[in-house]
Amino acid sequence: KKEWSPKMTFGTAFQAVIEHGPEKFLDRGDGLYHIRESNMPDAVVLNRSDIELAIKFRQRYPNIVHEIPDKYYLDCGEFIALISFKVDGADGLILHENKTTDKAASHDKYFKSMQWRAYLLATQAVKIQYNVFSYRIEEGTNNYIVDLNTFTFYPYNHLETDVRMFCNSFYRYCNRNGVLGYLKQNVEKVN
Fold it and tell me: From CA 39, how far away is CA 157, in angstroms rounded?
């Protein structure tokens, strides 16, 4: 059973407003937004100012298609890696990954990630934009203050080589540590 921390519930609720809009969650009786998604144990109750940045984000990017699952097969020599993923959003050939954090947004943290490289390789998008929503609770209240930082990454020469090297390195790590059996082995036909 999944344990839900306050950070996880706020992040999931904030993302739900980005995906579905605020109207779905508005309780006309109390004027608050009661957000319950993804098997959350309880609804998160937020006021308009808590989700204002999510609403503005939706207005700025009205054409985003949200939650796009996909998979990509990468020939790594002695095995074929199946990369399964779900992009938070796509606006044409531009991918969007939304993150919420109670820490300062760090370009280096996201730059070092293999996630964006795999997504760009698999989708052939022209760029990926990380939308990092940093939040804190206003002192003396229960109100959230949310700031947005964006980091954009582009395809580059040898992108496929880097993703393949990562997959091979991970495979060797699992083999060396006797946990190769924990990797899911698919017998799907590769097209």
Answer: 41
Instruction: Give the residue-averaged pLDDT of 64-76.
Output: 96
Look up tokens 């990468």; give the residue: 74
| Residue pLDDT, tens place only, 115-126 | 999 999 999 999
